[in-house]
Design goal:
Number of helices: 13
Helix content: 25-40%
Distance between the termini: 5 Å
Shape: globular
Number of strands: 19
Radius of gyration: 23 Å
Amino acid sequence: MRSVDVLVIGAGPAGLAAAHAARRAGARVVLLDASAVVGGQFWRHPPAGSSAADSLALQHKWDRFTALRAALTEDPGCEVVTGAQVWAVDRRDAGPPVVHALVGPADGGDRRRRVFEPRALVLATGAHERTLPFPGWDLPGVCTAGAAQAMAKGEGVAVGRRVLVAGTGPFLLPVAAGLIHVGATVAGVVEASSRRRIARGWLPRPHQMRPKDLLAKSAELGGYVRTLAAHRVPYRTGAAVVAAHGEDRVTAVTVARITEDWTPVPGTGRRVEVDAVCVGHGFVPRTELAISAGCALAADGSVRVDDGQRTSVPGVYAAGEITGIGGADLALAEGTAAGRAAAGAAGQAAAGAAGQAAAGGAVSTAEVARHRAFAARMHRAHGIRPGWTSWVGDSTVVCRCEEVTAGQVRAALAETGTCGLRSLKLSSRAGLGMCQGRTCGRNVEDLLPGPLLDAGRMANRPIAVPVRLGEIATTPTE
């Protein structure tokens, strides 16, 4: 077992910023990430030597990433461990939990077991995508918007030749631009929120946004608009993909106009021929490790933190998308705040460095608040509306792991009269598959009428990492 001042789990924007801030405050740091390279999903990039090096053109804030990566990998006071799967955390009566990890290729037979006893723990595990179900969404060729972007950035590969991008949120734009960059024809971008709702969300009180932030976001948006215009990509608002068609794979989708609450308008469906469709309806915090550590969650399923990024567990901090979806700028700001606070909690900062951290704390807190206000605008403009459930028929699969349809979920609810998600899972098997509700959890909750006894229960799931008995029976290397 290795004792460490600050252990950071997750090497995306929040984790890298946290590790860097903790080192600047004088703490010795270990940074863990499950991927082979650091950067997370936002800075996903080709492995060294990959022929897809030109996909770096799809990156944003790349200079910030390379600076953070160099500062940490070249610092003897920071150990960066990639390919590290955290498979268990042991809670303690006082302080952060002990963390167990297996290091090496997930399908390899010689992973090393490592155990860390941190004085402070920063969780920066990010989020996974949410996709609303519709008839045919389980056909080959239907994928998440994030999967399409990951293939474009990481491999230089397009998910199809003629692709439709649909869902809601600003994320659809870089996905479409990435597909164009790797040679796909984008048949269109379909945004569920109406122009009126987008305007109501983004435009009020522009004076509250810092001019520098406004200019940066406007420049980024302008770049996407120019790319789409140059390739004659139509951008449609107030519409959604309500069905996918095909036998062995998707060959077309139906796009319909929807109301303000996302209910499809009868008679407005239009068939679009495609060989792939990328759908994304926002993101859901990845809270498995936080829940295992005992951290309390907020009503929206994110990890609850205070102004210093402290969770409900002493010595445990959280930053980035697990505290609420807000984008890379917010993740970087929260990571910096969490790293500073964690270094102070570890008690290893020298007097001068501690004073520096304290002096910078107020600035960091103000920066976090500013980016959270920007995230609030995004959610007002692009948040999911309840009418989407009306495009889900009884035959539509909602739990893909267990192949449970919406009709089976509704029937189980009617037969049992339950108001609890736990009993519904046991009676319908929705959420009991390999993903443990990561894909279907929020959607199953939204399909149920009336108040639930245990709303958010689908987020309360275990860590899911394949572990061989022989791997946990061996003596840890440290």
